[in-house]
Design brief:
145 residues, alpha/beta, Rossmann fold, 6 helices
Length: 145
């Protein structure tokens, strides 16, 4: 299969870097556009909702952190020879945002890192990648630790 548009979630972690390496490889051999996606879900999960300047500063700090991760990862991708790379920062629940981006971009592959939770671990922690896989319109490549 030849890919045209790959989405890879990034978070700046070591495991996330392994997923990114796979996405870079697939993008290079297929000539696919690579979209790096960072989802900031801290504000989405926050209990405190306020329109204060302090809360705005906290939210902006989270977005700045995401932007910095995206720019760092993009630099690595470009240095590895991927010519068509885009960065996207979204706010919200991760699985919903990944699916939304997939539909908006018409992606034909999602690459994500996954921790190997036991069935009991999934029960208590949930699995973002599992929720993405169940709702995805395209294949999802799981990269494990």
């Amino acid at each position: 299969m030849s890919y045209k548009n790959i989405i890879c979630t990034v978070d700046g972690s070591e495991l996330g870097d392994r997923a990114l390496d796979e996405a870079v490889y697939l993008s290079k051999i297929s000539g696919a556009k690579l979209t790096l996606l960072y989802v900031s879900e801290q504000a989405y999960k926050a209990v405190l909702i306020s329109d204060s300047k302090e809360w705005d500063a906290i939210r902006e700090g989270w977005r700045t952190e995401g932007t910095e991760i995206l720019l760092k990862e993009k630099a690595k991708v470009v240095a590895n020879g991927v010519k068509d790379v885009q960065i996207v920062l979204r706010d919200g629940e991760v699985s919903n945002e990944v699916i939304s981006e997939t539909f908006e971009k018409g992606a034909d592959l999602i690459v994500m890192a996954s921790h190997r939770y036991s069935p009991v671990g999934k029960l208590f922690h949930g699995s973002i990648i599992d929720r993405v896989t169940k709702r995805s319109p395209c294949p999802v490549l799981w990269v494990f630790k």
